[in-house]
Amino acid sequence: MVTKVLQRMNCWICGAVADSREHKFKRSDLVRSSTTWAPGDQPYIVGGGGLHRIQSPNSRIATFGKVLCGDCNSARTQPFDRAYETFSKWVNDAQDGIMTMSHLDFTAIYGTDFRASVLNLQRYFIKHLGCRLASDHYEIPADLARSLWIEPVSSFGISLARSRVLGEIPARGPAILGNHALFGTYSQSSGTTRGPYITGVVVGYVDVIIRYAFPDRYPWEGDPVDHDTSTVRLGLYEGPGSGGHLADGLLPQSGQSRKFRIGDVELTIPVLSPDHLRFILSLEPPQPGLTFEQNIERRLRISHAILSPFFPDMTAQFLEENLSIPDTDALWRVVFPSKQ
Question: What is the pLDDT of residues 92-128, one digit of tens each?
Protein backbone atom coordinates (compact mmCIF):
# COMPACT_ATOMS: atom_id res chain seq x y z
CA MET A 1 0.00 0.00 0.00
CA VAL A 2 1.41 3.44 -0.92
CA THR A 3 1.24 5.90 1.95
CA LYS A 4 2.53 9.34 2.77
CA VAL A 5 3.40 11.02 6.03
CA LEU A 6 2.45 14.69 6.34
CA GLN A 7 3.99 17.10 8.79
CA ARG A 8 1.78 17.95 11.71
CA MET A 9 1.27 21.56 10.63
CA ASN A 10 0.22 20.69 7.07
CA CYS A 11 -3.40 20.23 6.06
CA TRP A 12 -3.74 16.52 5.32
CA ILE A 13 -6.18 17.24 2.50
CA CYS A 14 -4.37 19.88 0.43
CA GLY A 15 -0.95 20.32 2.08
CA ALA A 16 -1.39 24.00 2.98
CA VAL A 17 -0.61 25.32 6.45
CA ALA A 18 -2.95 23.65 8.96
CA ASP A 19 -4.53 26.37 11.08
CA SER A 20 -7.99 24.94 11.78
CA ARG A 21 -9.39 22.30 14.15
CA GLU A 22 -12.13 19.87 13.17
CA HIS A 23 -14.58 18.82 15.88
CA LYS A 24 -14.41 15.17 16.93
CA PHE A 25 -18.19 15.52 17.08
CA LYS A 26 -20.03 18.06 14.97
CA ARG A 27 -20.89 21.24 16.80
CA SER A 28 -24.54 20.59 15.98
CA ASP A 29 -24.33 17.30 17.94
CA LEU A 30 -22.73 19.09 20.88
CA VAL A 31 -25.32 21.87 20.92
CA ARG A 32 -28.14 19.30 20.72
CA SER A 33 -26.73 17.31 23.63
CA SER A 34 -27.21 20.05 26.25
CA THR A 35 -29.59 22.95 26.84
CA THR A 36 -27.84 24.83 29.67
CA TRP A 37 -24.24 23.46 29.80
CA ALA A 38 -24.52 23.52 33.57
CA PRO A 39 -22.36 20.83 35.28
CA GLY A 40 -25.33 18.51 35.61
CA ASP A 41 -26.37 19.06 31.99
CA GLN A 42 -23.07 18.46 30.20
CA PRO A 43 -22.62 15.67 27.64
CA TYR A 44 -20.03 12.94 27.96
CA ILE A 45 -17.32 11.86 25.60
CA VAL A 46 -16.58 8.13 25.60
CA GLY A 47 -12.88 7.32 25.44
CA GLY A 48 -9.64 7.06 27.36
CA GLY A 49 -11.04 4.28 29.52
CA GLY A 50 -14.23 6.02 30.66
CA LEU A 51 -16.73 8.87 30.37
CA HIS A 52 -15.49 12.48 30.40
CA ARG A 53 -17.63 15.62 30.59
CA ILE A 54 -17.52 18.16 27.76
CA GLN A 55 -17.79 21.61 29.35
CA SER A 56 -18.73 23.59 26.23
CA PRO A 57 -19.20 23.14 22.46
CA ASN A 58 -15.72 24.68 21.97
CA SER A 59 -13.99 22.51 24.56
CA ARG A 60 -10.53 21.37 23.40
CA ILE A 61 -11.40 17.78 24.36
CA ALA A 62 -14.04 17.85 21.61
CA THR A 63 -11.64 18.83 18.79
CA PHE A 64 -8.76 17.27 16.91
CA GLY A 65 -5.43 19.06 16.57
CA LYS A 66 -4.80 21.66 13.89
CA VAL A 67 -4.64 19.28 10.95
CA LEU A 68 -6.72 21.18 8.36
CA CYS A 69 -6.47 24.55 6.67
CA GLY A 70 -9.40 26.92 7.08
CA ASP A 71 -10.59 26.46 3.50
CA CYS A 72 -10.65 22.65 3.67
CA ASN A 73 -12.41 22.76 7.03
CA SER A 74 -15.13 25.09 5.80
CA ALA A 75 -16.01 25.86 2.18
CA ARG A 76 -14.48 22.81 0.50
CA THR A 77 -15.99 20.20 2.84
CA GLN A 78 -19.14 22.03 3.96
CA PRO A 79 -21.43 19.78 1.86
CA PHE A 80 -20.01 16.77 3.74
CA ASP A 81 -20.69 18.40 7.11
CA ARG A 82 -24.23 19.30 6.08
CA ALA A 83 -24.95 15.74 4.96
CA TYR A 84 -23.76 14.41 8.32
CA GLU A 85 -25.74 16.99 10.31
CA THR A 86 -28.94 15.96 8.50
CA PHE A 87 -28.19 12.28 9.14
CA SER A 88 -27.32 12.84 12.80
CA LYS A 89 -30.43 14.92 13.49
CA TRP A 90 -32.67 12.27 11.92
CA VAL A 91 -31.02 9.42 13.87
CA ASN A 92 -31.13 11.31 17.18
CA ASP A 93 -34.74 12.40 16.62
CA ALA A 94 -35.66 8.74 16.09
CA GLN A 95 -34.10 7.95 19.50
CA ASP A 96 -34.52 4.29 20.48
CA GLY A 97 -37.24 3.86 17.87
CA ILE A 98 -34.45 3.07 15.44
CA MET A 99 -33.90 -0.18 17.37
CA THR A 100 -37.03 -1.59 15.70
CA MET A 101 -35.81 -0.78 12.17
CA SER A 102 -34.13 -3.54 10.19
CA HIS A 103 -33.22 -1.14 7.36
CA LEU A 104 -32.49 2.56 7.05
CA ASP A 105 -34.26 4.41 4.25
CA PHE A 106 -32.12 7.30 3.02
CA THR A 107 -35.08 8.84 1.21
CA ALA A 108 -36.64 9.43 4.65
CA ILE A 109 -33.54 11.43 5.58
CA TYR A 110 -32.55 13.15 2.34
CA GLY A 111 -35.61 12.88 0.08
CA THR A 112 -35.84 11.22 -3.31
CA ASP A 113 -32.62 12.90 -4.52
CA PHE A 114 -30.57 11.03 -1.91
CA ARG A 115 -27.53 9.92 -3.90
CA ALA A 116 -25.39 13.05 -3.65
CA SER A 117 -26.20 13.43 0.05
CA VAL A 118 -25.31 9.81 0.91
CA LEU A 119 -22.04 10.18 -1.03
CA ASN A 120 -21.29 13.34 0.95
CA LEU A 121 -22.12 11.48 4.16
CA GLN A 122 -19.47 8.90 3.24
CA ARG A 123 -17.06 11.72 2.50
CA TYR A 124 -17.74 13.27 5.90
CA PHE A 125 -16.51 10.07 7.53
CA ILE A 126 -13.44 10.08 5.26
CA LYS A 127 -12.73 13.57 6.56
CA HIS A 128 -13.25 12.37 10.13
CA LEU A 129 -10.89 9.42 9.65
CA GLY A 130 -8.22 11.59 8.05
CA CYS A 131 -8.35 14.08 10.94
CA ARG A 132 -8.01 11.25 13.48
CA LEU A 133 -5.03 9.78 11.64
CA ALA A 134 -3.33 13.16 11.36
CA SER A 135 -3.99 14.05 15.01
CA ASP A 136 -2.60 10.70 16.18
CA HIS A 137 0.40 10.97 13.83
CA TYR A 138 -0.55 7.80 11.97
CA GLU A 139 0.31 7.38 8.30
CA ILE A 140 -2.35 8.76 5.97
CA PRO A 141 -3.02 6.62 2.87
CA ALA A 142 -2.11 8.55 -0.25
CA ASP A 143 -5.55 8.05 -1.82
CA LEU A 144 -7.58 9.09 1.23
CA ALA A 145 -7.67 12.81 0.39
CA ARG A 146 -8.42 12.03 -3.27
CA SER A 147 -11.38 9.95 -2.10
CA LEU A 148 -13.06 13.19 -1.01
CA TRP A 149 -13.46 14.22 -4.64
CA ILE A 150 -13.82 11.00 -6.63
CA GLU A 151 -16.58 8.44 -7.08
CA PRO A 152 -16.66 5.70 -5.97
CA VAL A 153 -14.83 6.20 -2.71
CA SER A 154 -11.81 3.91 -3.07
CA SER A 155 -10.77 1.45 -0.34
CA PHE A 156 -13.14 3.11 2.13
CA GLY A 157 -16.46 2.03 3.57
CA ILE A 158 -18.97 2.52 6.36
CA SER A 159 -21.69 0.33 7.83
CA LEU A 160 -24.43 1.09 10.37
CA ALA A 161 -25.56 -0.99 13.34
CA ARG A 162 -28.11 -0.45 16.11
CA SER A 163 -27.05 -0.72 19.74
CA ARG A 164 -28.32 0.20 23.21
CA VAL A 165 -24.91 -0.16 24.89
CA LEU A 166 -21.39 1.25 24.87
CA GLY A 167 -19.26 -1.75 25.70
CA GLU A 168 -21.06 -2.98 28.82
CA ILE A 169 -22.52 0.44 29.68
CA PRO A 170 -26.28 0.75 28.94
CA ALA A 171 -25.92 4.34 27.73
CA ARG A 172 -27.13 5.81 24.44
CA GLY A 173 -28.84 8.95 23.21
CA PRO A 174 -27.91 12.54 22.24
CA ALA A 175 -25.99 13.22 25.47
CA ILE A 176 -23.56 10.36 24.77
CA LEU A 177 -20.88 11.21 22.21
CA GLY A 178 -18.17 8.75 21.31
CA ASN A 179 -15.45 7.75 18.91
CA HIS A 180 -14.45 4.12 19.15
CA ALA A 181 -10.80 3.09 19.26
CA LEU A 182 -8.82 3.47 16.03
CA PHE A 183 -6.84 0.38 14.99
CA GLY A 184 -4.10 0.25 12.40
CA THR A 185 -0.99 -1.85 11.83
CA TYR A 186 2.07 -0.94 13.86
CA SER A 187 5.45 -1.54 12.24
CA GLN A 188 8.10 -2.14 14.88
CA SER A 189 10.89 -1.73 12.32
CA SER A 190 9.81 1.75 11.18
CA GLY A 191 8.03 2.84 14.38
CA THR A 192 4.96 3.93 12.40
CA THR A 193 1.29 2.97 12.35
CA ARG A 194 -0.31 2.49 8.95
CA GLY A 195 -3.40 0.95 7.37
CA PRO A 196 -5.52 -1.06 7.08
CA TYR A 197 -7.60 0.96 9.55
CA ILE A 198 -10.88 0.38 11.37
CA THR A 199 -12.68 2.63 13.85
CA GLY A 200 -16.20 3.83 14.61
CA VAL A 201 -18.41 6.70 15.70
CA VAL A 202 -21.43 6.75 18.02
CA VAL A 203 -24.49 8.57 16.63
CA GLY A 204 -27.44 8.15 18.98
CA TYR A 205 -28.41 4.47 18.98
CA VAL A 206 -26.28 3.80 15.90
CA ASP A 207 -22.66 2.69 15.59
CA VAL A 208 -21.03 3.86 12.37
CA ILE A 209 -18.19 1.44 11.58
CA ILE A 210 -15.50 3.12 9.47
CA ARG A 211 -12.88 1.13 7.60
CA TYR A 212 -10.06 1.73 5.16
CA ALA A 213 -8.77 -1.32 3.27
CA PHE A 214 -9.99 -3.48 6.18
CA PRO A 215 -11.90 -6.43 4.70
CA ASP A 216 -12.88 -8.38 7.84
CA ARG A 217 -16.34 -7.67 9.24
CA TYR A 218 -18.10 -8.17 12.57
CA PRO A 219 -20.98 -10.68 12.50
CA TRP A 220 -23.37 -8.04 13.86
CA GLU A 221 -22.51 -5.33 11.29
CA GLY A 222 -24.94 -3.97 8.77
CA ASP A 223 -24.35 -3.97 5.02
CA PRO A 224 -21.91 -1.47 3.46
CA VAL A 225 -23.52 1.88 2.66
CA ASP A 226 -23.88 2.42 -1.11
CA HIS A 227 -24.87 5.91 -2.25
CA ASP A 228 -26.63 4.46 -5.29
CA THR A 229 -28.99 2.40 -3.10
CA SER A 230 -31.82 4.04 -1.18
CA THR A 231 -31.92 1.54 1.70
CA VAL A 232 -29.28 -0.26 3.71
CA ARG A 233 -29.61 -3.14 6.15
CA LEU A 234 -28.83 -2.14 9.74
CA GLY A 235 -26.77 -4.39 11.94
CA LEU A 236 -27.64 -5.13 15.57
CA TYR A 237 -25.19 -5.30 18.47
CA GLU A 238 -26.76 -6.56 21.72
CA GLY A 239 -23.69 -6.83 23.93
CA PRO A 240 -20.84 -9.35 24.29
CA GLY A 241 -23.09 -12.19 23.15
CA SER A 242 -23.10 -10.62 19.68
CA GLY A 243 -19.33 -11.05 19.37
CA GLY A 244 -16.33 -8.75 19.54
CA HIS A 245 -16.66 -4.96 19.28
CA LEU A 246 -14.38 -1.98 18.88
CA ALA A 247 -15.52 -0.82 22.32
CA ASP A 248 -13.89 -3.95 23.77
CA GLY A 249 -10.73 -3.52 21.73
CA LEU A 250 -11.60 -6.57 19.63
CA LEU A 251 -11.12 -6.65 15.88
CA PRO A 252 -13.33 -8.60 13.45
CA GLN A 253 -12.37 -12.29 13.28
CA SER A 254 -9.28 -11.64 15.39
CA GLY A 255 -10.20 -14.08 18.14
CA GLN A 256 -8.08 -11.81 20.32
CA SER A 257 -9.21 -11.42 23.92
CA ARG A 258 -8.17 -8.46 26.05
CA LYS A 259 -8.24 -10.61 29.16
CA PHE A 260 -4.81 -11.13 30.71
CA ARG A 261 -3.78 -13.16 33.74
CA ILE A 262 -0.87 -12.47 36.08
CA GLY A 263 -0.57 -15.11 38.75
CA ASP A 264 -4.06 -15.49 40.22
CA VAL A 265 -5.22 -12.08 39.00
CA GLU A 266 -7.26 -11.79 35.78
CA LEU A 267 -7.35 -8.36 34.15
CA THR A 268 -9.20 -6.89 31.19
CA ILE A 269 -6.80 -4.52 29.46
CA PRO A 270 -8.52 -1.31 28.25
CA VAL A 271 -7.74 0.16 24.85
CA LEU A 272 -4.78 2.50 25.32
CA SER A 273 -5.05 6.13 24.26
CA PRO A 274 -2.78 7.35 21.42
CA ASP A 275 -0.63 9.26 23.92
CA HIS A 276 -0.28 6.16 26.09
CA LEU A 277 0.64 4.06 23.05
CA ARG A 278 3.25 6.59 21.94
CA PHE A 279 4.80 6.54 25.41
CA ILE A 280 4.95 2.74 25.39
CA LEU A 281 6.58 2.77 21.97
CA SER A 282 9.15 5.33 23.13
CA LEU A 283 10.53 2.91 25.72
CA GLU A 284 13.60 0.89 24.83
CA PRO A 285 12.56 -2.65 23.80
CA PRO A 286 14.39 -5.91 24.54
CA GLN A 287 16.79 -6.81 21.77
CA PRO A 288 19.70 -9.11 20.88
CA GLY A 289 23.07 -8.08 22.22
CA LEU A 290 21.82 -7.19 25.70
CA THR A 291 22.33 -9.35 28.74
CA PHE A 292 19.49 -11.50 30.00
CA GLU A 293 19.09 -9.18 33.02
CA GLN A 294 18.93 -6.08 30.78
CA ASN A 295 16.25 -7.61 28.58
CA ILE A 296 14.21 -8.67 31.61
CA GLU A 297 14.45 -5.14 32.99
CA ARG A 298 13.16 -3.67 29.71
CA ARG A 299 10.28 -6.15 29.55
CA LEU A 300 9.26 -5.29 33.10
CA ARG A 301 9.50 -1.55 32.46
CA ILE A 302 7.25 -1.80 29.39
CA SER A 303 4.74 -4.06 31.15
CA HIS A 304 4.59 -1.72 34.15
CA ALA A 305 4.08 1.30 31.86
CA ILE A 306 1.15 -0.49 30.17
CA LEU A 307 -0.58 -1.68 33.32
CA SER A 308 0.10 0.85 36.09
CA PRO A 309 -2.17 3.68 34.79
CA PHE A 310 -5.14 1.28 34.90
CA PHE A 311 -4.16 -0.99 37.78
CA PRO A 312 -2.24 0.82 40.57
CA ASP A 313 -1.70 -2.47 42.41
CA MET A 314 0.46 -3.70 39.54
CA THR A 315 3.69 -2.45 41.14
CA ALA A 316 7.11 -3.12 39.65
CA GLN A 317 7.82 -5.52 42.49
CA PHE A 318 4.57 -7.45 41.93
CA LEU A 319 5.34 -7.80 38.22
CA GLU A 320 8.91 -8.90 38.89
CA GLU A 321 7.62 -11.65 41.18
CA ASN A 322 4.69 -12.83 39.01
CA LEU A 323 5.35 -12.00 35.35
CA SER A 324 7.06 -14.47 33.00
CA ILE A 325 8.73 -13.76 29.66
CA PRO A 326 5.81 -15.40 27.74
CA ASP A 327 3.46 -13.21 29.82
CA THR A 328 5.19 -10.04 28.58
CA ASP A 329 4.87 -11.24 24.98
CA ALA A 330 1.17 -12.01 25.52
CA LEU A 331 0.60 -8.56 27.05
CA TRP A 332 2.20 -6.90 24.02
CA ARG A 333 -0.12 -8.86 21.69
CA VAL A 334 -3.15 -7.68 23.69
CA VAL A 335 -2.08 -4.03 23.43
CA PHE A 336 -1.13 -4.29 19.75
CA PRO A 337 -3.67 -6.79 18.37
CA SER A 338 -3.30 -5.85 14.69
CA LYS A 339 -1.30 -7.96 12.32
CA GLN A 340 2.36 -6.94 12.14
Answer: 999 999 999 999 999 999 999 999 999 999 999 999 9
Domain of residue 238: give its range. Answer: 3-248
Do residues 193 and 329 both lie within one domain? no
Last residue of a domain, one of 248, 280, 312: 248
Contact between 265 and 298 (Cβ < 8 Å): no
Q: What pLDDT digit, counting tens, does each position of 188-230 carry?
A: 677 788 889 999 999 999 999 999 999 889 999 999 999 999 9
Same domain? For 308 and 198 the reply is no
Residue 95 contacts by C-beta under 8 Å, 6 or more apart in sequence?
173, 204, 205
| CB 234 within 8 Å of CB 162 | yes
Residue 253 lies in a domain: no
Side chain identity at residue 273, one-letter code = S
Reference 237, options 229, 245, 225; nearest CA is 245
**Three-state SS across 121-163?**
HHHHHHHHHHHHHHHCCCCEECCCCHHHCCCCCCCEEEEEEEE
Q: Is there a single domain that holds both residue 236 and residue 175?
A: yes
Percent helix, strand and coil across the chain, each to the nearest 5: 35, 25, 45
Q: In the listed set 248, 267, 285, which residue is the last one of a domain according to the structure?
A: 248
Q: What is the pTM of this model?
A: 0.77
Model confidence at 269, pLDDT cuts 50, 70, 90, reads: confident
